[in-house]
Amino acid sequence: MTSRRLTVAGRVALLIRAGLISGLIIAGLSYPLAALAGMGVKAGTEALENMPEQLTETPPAQTTYVYAGDGKTLLTMFYEEHRKHVDLQDMSPYMTKAIVASEDSRFYEHNGVDAKGVARAFVANQKAGGVSQGASTLTMQYVRMALRDSARTPREALEATEQTATRKLREMRLAIEVEQRLSKEEILERYLNAAYYGHRAYGIFAASQVFFSKAPRDLTLTEAALLAGLVKAPSAYDPATKNQTAALDRRNYVIDQMLKIDAITEEQAATARKSKIKLKLSTPPNDCVSVADQHNDWGFFCDYFKSWWREQPAFGRTPQEREENLRRGGYRVVTSIDPKIQRYAMGHVLEKEKRGSTIAHGQVVVQPGTGRILSMAVNRRYSLDQERNGRHSDWRQDDDVKGNYPNTVNPLLGGGDMAGYQAGSTFKIFTLLAALEAGLPLSTTFYSPQRFVSRYITAPGPATCGIHWCPKNSNGSMTGNQNMWSGFGKSVNTYFVQLEQRVGAEKAVEMAERLGLRWRTEVDRTLATKEHASGWGAFTLGVSDATPVEMANVFATLAAEGRYCEPTPVESIRNPDGTHALHQDELVTAPRCRQAVKVNVARAATDAARCVTGYGSARGSCGGWGTSEMVYGTLGRPVAGKSGTTDGNKTAWFSGYTPQLAAAAFVADPDNPEHLVGEGRSTMSKYTVAQTLRDALKGEPEEDFKPPSDKYVW
């Protein structure tokens, strides 16, 4: 009872003075007796008094699990050390008995430092003339692990594990402190969750998964004994090697020790010793390149998620710190990807353009009103392996330069630093919205000639006449009076250039920025500045780059009646303790929305966009036809949207939406923007969007768009 009232330092000092630990502790136990030189009991006591009295414990790194939107299908994991905390009650009782038997049979008898074990090791080491036995208790080993995991610098990590007398003294002192503060069960739980078992498996959860593909609670006697034996030397006793002799001998040693402490019966021990080692090895996925083969197409979504995470201030001060937090934080992330919609989208993409094509065909589906990304599909495999990729499509490249097909990790659909693709006439939506916002009604009419001499100044080229930019329509049937319904439905270039002149090109550029577009090329960034935007006449025809995520979200904003929501790939993020991840007291995953344009402005734009798809306007005449009438014919429910192609068919886009879903699809060559996709692919994106929305909405109630008020019509 007297020793319980002493300070930690006093208790250990008492052990030294009593001769129970003696100079043996000072020597570090793991060292030859030569390490004692020059350091006696007095010096050891003084060193002990200067050491910290309480263990600083930093929660160890844990694996982050990322799931699909169903909350069940694992997309991938992120980790530096594969680890997940498990409560003691969720571990097999064989595991706790095996680790005590093999590492510290007197665990329940000592108070952190085992005096008898110290004396025994001292005698053994003296006889051996070197290290033959240690005397580290489970508690001391846990202290060492905690110091290692809490290290902030390489030096601190070294001090936690190096073979020195100082380290051993510190472990002993802190072990006694830990035993005063924690129960034996708590120490055992923390030990088993911190120990290293090999194959990058830290903690019993990871070890059970890696070696046996099962949960810790399901470990058998022989499996538990095998894992317990690994802690001493994971490489030396690795059972995953061809020669399992060392692993088998070590496992049977643990079984014998379990029998010795009466943890198992003689019959159990005899049966267990005869058992062969049976492994069910698994390699836990790590990062986006490890997405399972059956869901490989989810890799591009995973990559977008990772880029999104690096931008969130809730997870660190810098992108690098945030990514480190992703790998160490032990989060449970439920993403927004809908497996059913992704399957539909991927099927329709691949039936039109196979993976082996130089041409990329992809599609993104977004939920209006939340910004959640439900699908990211493209005709590529997400893989670093380019060994069998085809030749690069740019003839100026060397013959041995591989193209990014069928395998790539480039962010073809959005995220990262890829600029995207010229979006063609889909950009007319920004001019339309800017004009409506400026007070011009849908009935605004201009005579639209085949070729129009604009006021915009441009360099000499095929679309110039003198010093002016002179765009033309794709065919002569567009010549005549057009309003916003017919001009948008037929995609009349010369109408929209006049509308842009009326409202100001800078207003169209500003509208695009308001709806989430970022300028990723030096040319776009320069032309979008205040000094140049007013002269960027070609902007309305989509000469700027955009990503499918951006364009799907633009039209999702219209579907949500002008409410813009940042694109997000997540539904929920929970901390290891089950609480929701927060930033400034708000859910990190909460939709970040704002009213980007007035409700009736969005409704008026939708009324014009209905003309494109063949669904027809609610308030005016579409002029007899639209560029994408097959969309309504395929989908069979209220739909609006906009098609877009660039000069010479370098890209072909379609963005479409219903009140419930919005999607954007493209066709382009990401390796070579000058490579023409061909006129035969001009309708590909239209059908892909229509078919995907049709399948995704099957069984859902039909919803119609609300028409705009008179103010925006006449």
UniProtKB/TrEMBL annotation:
<dbReference type="InterPro" id="IPR036950">
    <property type="entry name" value="PBP_transglycosylase"/>
</dbReference>
<feature type="domain" description="Penicillin-binding protein transpeptidase">
    <location>
        <begin position="364"/>
        <end position="667"/>
    </location>
</feature>
<keyword id="KW-0378">Hydrolase</keyword>
<dbReference type="Pfam" id="PF00905">
    <property type="entry name" value="Transpeptidase"/>
</dbReference>
<keyword id="KW-0808">Transferase</keyword>
<keyword id="KW-0121">Carboxypeptidase</keyword>
<protein>
    <submittedName>
        <fullName>Transglycosylase domain-containing protein</fullName>
    </submittedName>
</protein>
<keyword id="KW-0645">Protease</keyword>
<keyword id="KW-0812">Transmembrane</keyword>
<feature type="domain" description="Glycosyl transferase family 51">
    <location>
        <begin position="75"/>
        <end position="258"/>
    </location>
</feature>
<keyword id="KW-0328">Glycosyltransferase</keyword>
<dbReference type="InterPro" id="IPR001460">
    <property type="entry name" value="PCN-bd_Tpept"/>
</dbReference>
<dbReference type="InterPro" id="IPR012338">
    <property type="entry name" value="Beta-lactam/transpept-like"/>
</dbReference>
<dbReference type="InterPro" id="IPR050396">
    <property type="entry name" value="Glycosyltr_51/Transpeptidase"/>
</dbReference>
<dbReference type="InterPro" id="IPR001264">
    <property type="entry name" value="Glyco_trans_51"/>
</dbReference>
<feature type="transmembrane region" description="Helical">
    <location>
        <begin position="12"/>
        <end position="33"/>
    </location>
</feature>
<dbReference type="InterPro" id="IPR023346">
    <property type="entry name" value="Lysozyme-like_dom_sf"/>
</dbReference>
<keyword id="KW-1133">Transmembrane helix</keyword>
<keyword id="KW-0511">Multifunctional enzyme</keyword>
<dbReference type="Pfam" id="PF00912">
    <property type="entry name" value="Transgly"/>
</dbReference>
<keyword id="KW-0472">Membrane</keyword>
